Amino acid sequence: MISLLADTFFGLFAPPFRRREFLQQLYFVANRSLIIIVFCVSFAAIVTILESSFHMKMVIQNDSMVPGFAAVLILRELAAVVMALLLASRVGAGYASEVGSMQITEQIDALKMLGIDPVNYLVVPRFLACVLGATILTVVANMSCLFSAMLVSQSLLGYTPGMFIASMHRFIQFRDIIFAMIKGACFGGVIPIVACYFGFNCQQGAEGVGRATTNTVVVASIAIIVIDFILSYTFSHLY
Q1: Distance of CA 96 to the CA centre of its chain
Q2: Which terminus of the chain has a smaller tally of CB atoms within 10 A, N or C?
Q3: What pTM was estimated for this model as a whole?
Q4: What's the rounded Cα separation, in Å, for the pair 42 and 217?
Q5: Which of 100, 108, 122 is CA-nearest to residue 205?
């Protein structure tokens, strides 16, 4: 997998540059995943702010810090991680199935016989699309989460949008958005690498494709959690 990652980085700067494939993959990653990600992260934000309010009322008898606390949690962790896990399940599984099917039907061998580098043709456009698409989706997910949290704060907790924004400004900084975008890009980059690795090493038959798909979702999800820990620990030293 490290060798595939190195070949992918080298392929970023080696022609031919496949703009059409990149745009097709970006549409698949960003546009086709948008609705389900917005839907899921919004409900995750609603649960977060309600649980935060419940526990703060139980512990300190006051939930005035809930809007700001929820905004910090959303921007630093919730939106990017939930978005990435959903992307790994949908896009990663799709890539593993597609590349695995090409592997067992010898289409990848045919590419090599035609002098086409499979990494340049299959992995590089998907890698770029996932990095850019995940970055965009992280911003959208964060905005969706904050908007959902604001609506719930107003309707169920009694905080007006002005109070929510004022509380949010006391807790978050602009660098939180930048760090969230960096996380999104890293999460997006690991998904196609894992998916194409298992796709290239797919065993024959439907069982092999299914195993490659399952392994992709499991390994990509674990990698996202580990990368999140590393980046969160690193960013904690930059505040």
Answers
A1: 16
A2: C
A3: 0.87
A4: 22
A5: 100
